[in-house]
Amino acid sequence: MSRDPAIGYRRPMRSWWRRDRFFVRYMLRELTALAVLVYAIVLAVGVVRLSQGEAAFDGWLQALRSPLSLLLHVVLLLSMVVHAHSWFEIMPKTMPLIFVGGRRLAARTIQRTGWAATVVVTVVVFALALWARA
Amino acid sequence: MKRSNAPIFWLLFGAGGMLSALLGTVLVFITGLAVPLGFALGADWMSYPRALAFAQHWLGKAFLFVVIALFAWHAVHRLFHSLHDVGVHAGMTAKLLCYGTAAVLTVAAVVGLLSIGF
What we know:
The complex is a heterodimer of chains A (134) and B (118). Chain A contains four helices and two strands, in the order H-H-H-E-E-H. Chain A is mainly alpha-helical and 134 residues long. Chain A has two domains: 94 residues, Fumarate reductase/succinate dehydrogenase, transmembrane subunit (3 helical TM bundles of succinate and fumarate reductases, Up-down Bundle); 38 residues. Chain A has a two-stranded antiparallel sheet with strand order 1-2. The longest helix of chain A is centred in the first third of the chain and has 31 residues. Chain A is flat. The model of chain A has no long low-confidence stretch (mean pLDDT 88). Chain B is mostly helical and 118 residues long. Chain B has one domain: Fumarate reductase/succinate dehydrogenase, transmembrane subunit (3 helical TM bundles of succinate and fumarate reductases). Chain B is elongated, with a radius of gyration of 17 Å. The model of chain B has no long low-confidence stretch (mean pLDDT 92). Classes of the chains: A mainly alpha (134), B mainly alpha (118). Chains A and B meet through helix 1, helix 2, helix 3 and helix 4 of A and helix 1, helix 2, helix 3 and helix 4 of B.
């Protein structure tokens, strides 16, 4: 980036991650954090609007129905799936070691358990939402 | 030696990561797609009186607070540590901006939820 002679040559940073598919995947994975943040903002705005009364909250609901918001939430949904996938992918590396019968628990077992937990939680939450239908 | 405050941020990051991995997909689907489109749950699922009743209950309050706060702290922690990869120096300004965003969202959620009442 810099051409300051005191610093010398610095390899440019721009688009370094596009040179390799592994890095592209890495950047996409890190970008899912942005989706988690955006969704937290959407919910926080909803809570604040709810505290401001019916008209304010209806405005938030109306905004959620706009095509732009629907498109955004499709992107958020896909990002959340990628995020969950990457979270369970790294879990065997971040967790304390587990030994079963003297052998280290396989990474795949941990990943599959994580996915299974997500599927169970998803089904339970959606069932609860259906049960609480208007 | 001064104690590091890093474990607190890592803890929030880990808890938020787990929670968003488990809940993120279904929550986005319900609040962002199913309800606005009137799919399966009905368009009135999040209507004002229902949302209010949910947020007034201590359990609903706790749920909303935990989801908003942990999602936010998880996300900013990860974004902060990705800054270096896109050539942004992860200095004090970046740190304050990142964690400040999460703090603002947390405070907004607390103030909103408390003013909704019980």
